[in-house]
Specification:
The protein has 4 helices and no strands. With 226 residues, the chain is mainly alpha-helical. Helix 1 (7-28) runs antiparallel to helix 2 (36-64), helix 2 (36-64) runs antiparallel to helix 3 and helix 3 runs antiparallel to helix 4 (122-225). Its main location: membrane.
């Protein structure tokens, strides 16, 4: 079992790519020609798969924080790429739903061809189409806002990681200074002891010299007196 710091990230990314590939096949192929019921079922499945892919991205975002800083930048790039792909297919799902809703409305309008141009319901259908268009535009703006929020969140996470690294460096420097202070205190104490011993040796040496001088004087006096 791979226990490297990036193993979980790689695993989540592989799952994410599998979901994205399945979603791509369902959304980018021209399935509007199929029956609308089948298309609606496909879009519901795509929505569920996008939820799973979103969960994978969330897990990747959690794992990238524990990756060593020396290699983290490349994984952050991969995370941003995954987020961009996720937003791309969320947008494509919204567009596909809008196209399907528009096709349903147009089909209803075609089936009601027996109505004349002054059909009392035609204005309602026109307003409904206009409302669908406005809803689609609102969804696009919402997705853009979400994308900006995600990018801002990613930048904020990067800043927090950098600040944490700087704090660790400061703490390490402080610990080094504390150790240096202890070493200086020990060296100073050792020097003081050496100076004290030097003075003690000088006193002892002076005393020995004084005794020897006294003995020489006494011996010389006795010889002269004899």
């Amino acid at each position: 079992m791979d226990t490297s710091p990036t193993a979980l990230f790689d695993s989540y990314e592989a799952d994410f790519r599998q979901f994205i590939e399945t979603i791509r096949e369902k959304l980018e192929t021209n399935e509007l020609e199929n029956e609308r019921k089948q298309r609606k079922t496909t879009l519901r499945r795509v929505e569920m798969e996008l939820d799973e892919a979103d969960e994978m991205v969330s897990q990747m975002e959690l794992e990238v924080a524990s990756i060593p800083q020396s290699v983290r930048s490349s994984y952050q790039t991969r995370l941003r790429s995954a987020k961009a792909d996720l937003q791309k297919y969320k947008k494509l799902l919204t567009e596909s739903r809008s196209q399907l809703a528009r096709a349903d409305l147009l089909s209803s309008s075609d089936n009601a061809g027996a109505y004349s141009s002054d059909d009392p319901y035609s204005s309602d259908r026109t307003r409904l189409l206009a409302g669908t268009t406005l809803l689609e535009q609102g969804s696009k703006r919402l997705q853009q806002s979400q994308q900006i929020a995600l990018e801002t969140e990613a930048q904020g996470a990067d800043i927090l990681m950098n600040l944490r690294g700087q704090r660790e460096q400061i703490e390490n420097s402080r610990d080094t200074l504390n150790r240096a202070d202890l070493a200086i205190d020990r060296a100073s104490s050792t020097l003081k002891q050496m100076v004290r011993r030097m003075y003690q040796q000088r006193v002892v040496t002076g005393a020995i010299i004084g005794v020897m001088l006294l003995l020489i004087i006494v011996i010389s006096w006795e010889k002269l007196a004899g």
